[in-house]
C-alpha cells in the first residue's frame, strides 16, 4: 500500500471528483460515512459526543459526521472555531444541512473555548492534511483544552496540528487515542516521535479511484498481508531438504549462546532445508541438545568465533547475533563477507563491528541485508535530530552502500538501495524484549537460503516476524511474551497469511 504526501492525496481526490465523476461534497459525504461507520462500531450511542471543527474540509467532515451521529441517536454537541479563515465551500454546504438539526456553537474568542466535561468522546476535526503552519492563538487554546480534558479523542484523518509529511516542531497538537484516516496512510503515522499524536490508527476506504492512486509515484509503502501473501513461495510436491536451501549462521559467544539458539530455531521454523550453526566450542553441547535439527560446525575458539570454514556450499549466510567484538571475530567477519560473495544478513555485533571498521562497507556484497535497531543504526550512520531526518539518513545509507537496511522498531522500515522504503504493519510492543531481533535474523537468513531475493527475504521476514508476534501476544499477552514464544508461532504466522 502506498504512503503519499498530502499534495498527492489532493491530486487523487481531484482526479476522482473529475473522473468518477463525483461532486466534491458527495466525496466528503462518503468520507464522513466511512468515519461514522468506524465510530459506531466502536462506541455505542450511550456516549456523549463533542465534535470540534475548523472551517476547512476537515471541519466539513466534522459537520457531516455530527449530522450522521445525530441521526443515529448519539447526543452530539458541536463547535466550530470561526477565526479569520474563510470557510471552504463544502463546509458551508454542510453548515446549511445542519440547520434545524444541531446548533453549531461558534468559538470566536478565548472566552468561548468549551469546558469539555469528562466522559465525552471528542471528535477532532479542526485541521486535516491542509495544515500549513504551526498552530497558535485561539486554535491553540482549543487544542490545549481538548488535550487537558482527559476525554478520549478521535481525530478525523490526522490529528489537528500534526504535519503529515514533515517534522512537527510545535507541541500544540491534538493527542488522540485513535486516528481514523482516509484511504491512504500518511508518513507521519510511522514516526516514533509522533506516537502520542497518532494513537492507534485506522485506514477507512472512501472509494478514491485506484487508477488515480496508481498514477501517483511514491518511494514509501506499507507492507500488508496481501503483498506478502503474493510473494510466499509454495512447496513443490517433489521437494527435498536440498531444494529448500542450505543456510549457515555464525553466531554466539560465551554467555550469549541464547542468541545463536534463538536464531537457529527461527531459521528452522521459517523453513530452511538444512541449517549449519558455526559457533564457538563452548556452545557445542548447548546447540546439539537444544536444537537437534541443526548441524554444528564448532569454531576453534572456545569462547568466541576466531575463524570461518568453507562457505561456498551455502545459499545464505547470517552473521552477528551474540558474536561479541573480539579481534579474531572482527577479522573473520571481514574475511567471510568477501569469501561468501553473495548477499548475506548482518545483525547485532556484526553491525557494531562494521561501525568500527567502515572499510567493511566497501566490500559487502551488493544487497546485503543489515538489520540494525536504532542505536546500531546511529553507530553506522550518525545522529539525527528528528525521525524525518532519520528516514533521510536511512535512505541515503542504503543507496550509498548498495545495501538493504532493516531499521527495527514499531513499524520497522526496510530501505532498499533504490530509495524505496517499506514500513511494516505487523507486530506489537510485546516484541520489545531481548532476543526477538535474533529471531528475525534467523528468519531472514532462512528465507534467503530458500531462494527469496534479498529484498523479498527482508520484507517477508519482517512481516512474518510481526505476525508471529501478534499471534503469540493473543495467547501470552504482550507483557509476558518472550522471543521463544514468537518462534513457536512462526508456523501459525505462515498459515495465517496463506
Ligand atoms: N474532496 C476532498 O478533498 C476531501 C477532503 N477531505 C478532508 O479534507 C481535509 C483537507 O481539507 P483542507 O484542504 O480544506 O484543509 P484543512 O481542513 O486541514 O484546513 C485548511 C484550512 O485551515 C487553514 N490553516 C492551515 N493551517 C492553519 C493553522 N496552523 N492555523 C490556522 N489556520 C490554518 C488553511 O489556510 C485552510 O483555510 C482532509 O484532511 C480530509 O479531512 C475529505 O472530506 C475527503 C475528501
Ligand atoms: N514497539 C514495538 N512494536 C513492534 N515491534 C517491535 C517493537 N519493539 C521492538 N519490536 C521488534 O522486536 C525486534 C527487536 O529487535 P532487537 O532490538 O534487535 O532486539 P534483540 O537484540 O534483543 O534481539 C525487532 O524486530 C523490532 O522490530
Ligand atoms: K483532524
What does this structure look like?
The protein is an alpha/beta fold and 498 residues long. The chain folds into two domains: 6-216, YjeF N-terminal domain (Rossmann fold); 225-497, Ribokinase (UDP-N-acetylmuramoyl-L-alanine:D-glutamate ligase). The chain is 42% helix and 15% strand. It is built from 19 helices and 17 strands. The strands form two sheets. Strands 8-17-16-15-14-13-12-9-10-11 form a ten-stranded mixed sheet. A hairpin with a 5-residue loop joins strand 16 and strand 17. The chain is elongated. It starts with 5 loop residues before the first helix and ends with a helix. The mean pLDDT is 96. Bound molecules: ligand NAX, adenosine-5'-diphosphate (ADP) and potassium ion (K). InterPro entries: Carbohydrate_kinase_pred_CS (IPR017953), CARKD (IPR000631), Nnr (IPR030677), Ribokinase-like (IPR029056), YjeF_N_dom (IPR004443), YjeF_N_dom_sf (IPR036652). AMP binds at residues 408-412, 437. Its cofactor is Mg(2+); K(+).
